[in-house]
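User: Structure tokens for both sequences below?

Assistant:
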Amino acid sequence: MDDLLRRALDARVGDVLPMPTPLDAAPGLSARLGVPVLLKREDLTPIFAFKIRGAYNRMAQLGPAERAAGVVAASAGNHAQGVAYAAQRLGATARIVMPLTTPSIKVRAVRRLGADVVLAGDGYDAAAAHAADIARTEGRTIIPPFDDLDVIAGQGTVGLELLHQAPRDLATIFVPIGGGGLAAGVSSVVKTVRPGVRVVGVEPDDSDAMRRSLAAGKRVVLEHVGFFADGVAVKQVGEHTFALCRRYLDDCITVGVDEICAAIADVFDDTRSILEPAGALSVAGAKRAAEAGSLAPGPVVAVTSGANMNFARLAYVAEQAQVGEHREAIFAVTIPERPGAFLGFCAAIGERSVTELNYRLATRAEAHIFVGLEVAGVEESRAIAAGLERRGYPCADLSDNDLAKTHIRHMVGGRTAEVADEVLYGFEFPERPGALLQFLTRLGSRWNISLFHYRNHGAAFGRVLCGLEVPPADRDELRGRLDALGFSYREESDNPAGRFFLRS
């Protein structure tokens, strides 16, 4: 352990990173946390992650025979890219075993770098076992993702760089933890050179092997790990990394998925860059510490460790970020089932920004509405719920209900035998606070609303699907009313999607 600083100083990282990654100011985060926040931009390396440091440093130590035989590694993605990149630079062949759950963007990136990719197992441990078999049968050298002193030393160069870049009154460094290589390297170097600087590790609350190991005084094995932050989904930390983190880390905290998503949004606001979930852990940890009042006064560095984000995940991240930042509150509200009741409910909400509104007629007695509202924090959510209750609308706050956020919000609706003479229309209207209420007010309460779905997609126009119970004799009157609304609309009554899933 004592020679980590020497190893880091002697690391070959300069071969692939001739210039240090930037230490960028985060003005938005700084204002919110009340201390200067700086981002160590490891997401800006050639592979968009810090893993290039440890992988290259380890492989630069290989002898000619080892390079000729090639290397093998197991990785959920970023270490795989580091090994593939290093192999390409050093003229070695690389075989990478990646879990079946690895995001496709990382698989494609590894293949583009010339490595042979083998997909095996549902997590890192299964992939590592398969990589060990390949090493035995093919004579390849295993390049560990974290539990190797040369790998740890390579990651430790992050600490060396930021000590040169950060202000002298640097107070705290937040660093993500998966297997522990980055945390072990950074904490070892920083604590050796500047022991007064706090180093705090951050893990997802569903993949907290290091926190549990530190609490138990020995390495523990998690039965299950979460896969949202796939880059840190490790069931057991390394022997070396555990020993170093136990000695040098000041604390190890955990954060939830919503907090990670909110941190991705925060970094985007400050830098216009999109981090992957594991890459945003340190920012989420800094925010958690500030909220808990445990953030030491003075500048803070958060290591943004990677940006290999699948584009398809962005919609989910944006949705969860609103809840994680307490910018969106979700409610289940009960209203009477009668014409005009839906309009009355929207009037009770007022000109708040609505993020989502789902309703489907179920019985003639009462209606249950799923509604999301933009809020400024938890206190406003509570005030809204209390205000709805006072107006006679029973209300349940679902903002922290994972089932509601993940599934139920997309499942409200379906067929019903209660609806009669239903017609479906799609509408578009300019997206602004109060526009939804204006739309419903203009539509009026002449006919009963049997279905309503609206989601704010962040576009200039809001889109609504609305079902109305309109007897055939009233259809011409309805169309005249719709023409007078001033909003773009189209009839969807014969749309096959509606026939299959909404009509009895």
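Moving on to the next sequence.
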Amino acid sequence: MTDQIPVLEQLINALKILPGVGQKTAQRMAFHLLKIDKEKAQTLGATITHALDIIQHCKQCRNYTEREVCEICSNSNRKTTQMCIVETPTDVMAIENGTNYQGVYFVLMGKLSPLDGIGPDQLGLDQLEQHLKLGGLEEIILATSSTMEGEVTAHVIAQMVNQYGLKITRLAQGVPIGGELEYLDLNTLSQAFNTRTDYK
């Protein structure tokens, strides 16, 4: 792109930070932004800037919020004896939209990955331990992913929680509703057998 306009090149490179956006997609996005109504493009830019200025981490659960304490943590109707530990804010949204869970959350903002420089400090495990020390919790639900890093993260958290004598549960994983065994990968099938429950 040596013949590219420098500012246009900067725009394309900036768009490439988005997940799943490579060089060609970034180029299409950049040209689209330049082609549409200038006011709409400026609104997008202003909205991004405003969001980055306003949105912060909830002081209790680390989820994204515009206030010091998010709506879930400040909701007196939530069951504060249950805490679901998830990796990302999108996990919170998935559980809120797909289940009737009424407890609270703790958002790790990632999973343990020493190769990527993500350790206990980056996941706020010291803050999680402060929650455990305060008491009042009865059950910790580990809802980390079933990847190797997610399993390691769940194991480390479980070891920490065990010191406080709380009930620890892990999301069951395996065959999805409507899934056929022949199409499952071996890891999923194995997990389905290992986490099988009584049939009633």
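User: Anything stand out in the second?

Assistant: The chain has a mean pLDDT of 89.
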